[in-house]
Amino acid sequence: MPISDTAGVPSCDGALLTDLYELTMLQAYFERGMNGLAVFELFVRTLPPQRNFLVAAGLEQAIGYLTALHLRDDERDWLHRSGRFTPAFIASLADLHFTGDVLAMPEGTVCFPNEPLLQIAAPLREAQLVESRLLNLLHYQTLVASKAARCVQAAADKPVIDFGLRRAHGAEAALLSARASYLAGFAGTATVSANVSFGIPLFGTMAHSFIQVHDDELDAFEAFARAQANNTLLIDTYDTEAAASKVVALAHRLRTDGIEIRGVRIDSGDLGEHARRVRAILDAGGLRQTQIFASGNLDEYRLEALQQQGAPIDGYGVGTHVGTSADAPYLDCVYKLQEYAGRARRKRSEHKATWPGRKQVYRYVDESGRLLHDVLTLATDQQDGVALLSPVIQAGQRIQPPVPLDQARVYCKAQIEALPAALRAMNGTRPYAVTVAEPLRALTREVDRSTMPATAANR
């Protein structure tokens, strides 16, 4: 019998939301009595094309997952029924919970390849088991926040609203996408549950179906305007400019009842050209305060083009391209062992080698606060830059209250504003400098000497 909630939806909050190999490794560790202190770090190897930076996101959900980790009775029953695991191993998981320490970059931090977003030091079985879910949580929100930040930059000072629910890859993705995009600077979301869960401001207009179920477009506009004080009318169902003229006529009639038409939305066609024509119609009709909102498969490149055209658009709705990060739908995000039982470890696989040991990232800025470069080094190599990794969990307990999302959003805005202008551009540029410090290079050589076969070491 599968594990699911009462609605038949698979559970997303259990210890078994993991890859099978995490569990098979845990049984092998158990049989060999291996549960020493392990240090893992989560980082992104490379940037996607045209990207110049990332925005770290998802830490709050990662903390919630770690501090609540345990094996439920139904999950233990599944382990027995699967026939893959020994009774002794399953019994050993009865007291499973996270007891380790976590250091992390604050949400909203601008970051670059090979810089740890999160570092875990915990008994091996705990540190290994959580790999897949941590990657799942941090990868996705970092991916979306990084894309959303580009849209915010492209839109300049115009508000951008998340319209991503209907094209999101599942309910959790829709909620976390709304959260990550708001963190990165979106003004709000159309997803109601994102307001319920995270307090994100809500925005909404109407669908074409609302117009179509009415026999007359003007009647539809009036019905909606009277029903919603904060109204925005969708005007491109039939003829965009003709609808704008109807809005003008309606607005003068509604004013006698104290009702104002706040805005109109255009969702198709040449958005820039339609916006110019609609703006002229509205202004000529005395509706200079009525705003124009645009949507329809927008991304940072189309936003930038509309801004460069000087299109008279006051705000944008962006969904599919951010929620799926359509042009770069994944990051090369990994979770790798750095130390076990007091010894530094590293992977030497071709094109996938890692730097060993517990690390820290130091950031250097100029007198105006503009980013200059980062240094990746060992945690023991204290430098005079700003340390980006700080403790968030000690001995399994979070040590600070959750950072309010609005506060993280302000921090993220400051981080992005501190980037050199070239890094905020929509196209790729010269990579930001992340220097690997000599103590870390020296440890790497030492680890290689100690783990390399004797024949290779003597070459």
Automatic annotation (TrEMBL):
Transmembrane segments: none
Domain of life, per lineage: Bacteria
EC number: 6.3.4.21
Gene Ontology CC terms, in alphabetical order: cytosol
Domain Nicotinate phosphoribosyltransferase N-terminal: start-end pairs: 16-138
Known pathway: Cofactor biosynthesis; NAD(+) biosynthesis; nicotinate D-ribonucleotide from nicotinate: step 1/1
Record's keyword terms, sorted: Glycosyltransferase, Ligase, Phosphoprotein, Pyridine nucleotide biosynthesis, Transferase
Enzyme class, UniProt record, top EC level: ligase
Annotated coiled-coil segments of the chain: none
Matches recorded under Gene3D superfamilies: Aldolase class I (3.20.20.70), nicotinate phosphoribosyltransferase (3.20.140.10)
Gene Ontology molecular-function annotations: nicotinamide phosphoribosyltransferase activity; nicotinate phosphoribosyltransferase activity
Enzymatic reactions: 5-phospho-alpha-D-ribose 1-diphosphate + nicotinate + ATP + H2O = nicotinate beta-D-ribonucleotide + ADP + phosphate + diphosphate
PTM field: Transiently phosphorylated on a His residue during the reaction cycle. Phosphorylation strongly increases the affinity for substrates and increases the rate of nicotinate D-ribonucleotide production. Dephosphorylation regenerates the low-affinity form of the enzyme, leading to product release.
Pfam families xrefs: NAPRTase, NAPRTase_N
Domain named Nicotinate/nicotinamide phosphoribosyltransferase: residues: 161-280
GO BP term (any one): NAD+ biosynthetic process via the salvage pathway
PANTHER family, sorted: NICOTINATE PHOSPHORIBOSYLTRANSFERASE
Function of the molecule: Catalyzes the first step in the biosynthesis of NAD from nicotinic acid, the ATP-dependent synthesis of beta-nicotinate D-ribonucleotide from nicotinate and 5-phospho-D-ribose 1-phosphate.
Family: Belongs to the NAPRTase family.
Entry protein name: Nicotinate phosphoribosyltransferase
Organism of provenance: Paraburkholderia diazotrophica
Phylogenetic classification of the source organism: Bacteria, Pseudomonadati, Pseudomonadota, Betaproteobacteria, Burkholderiales
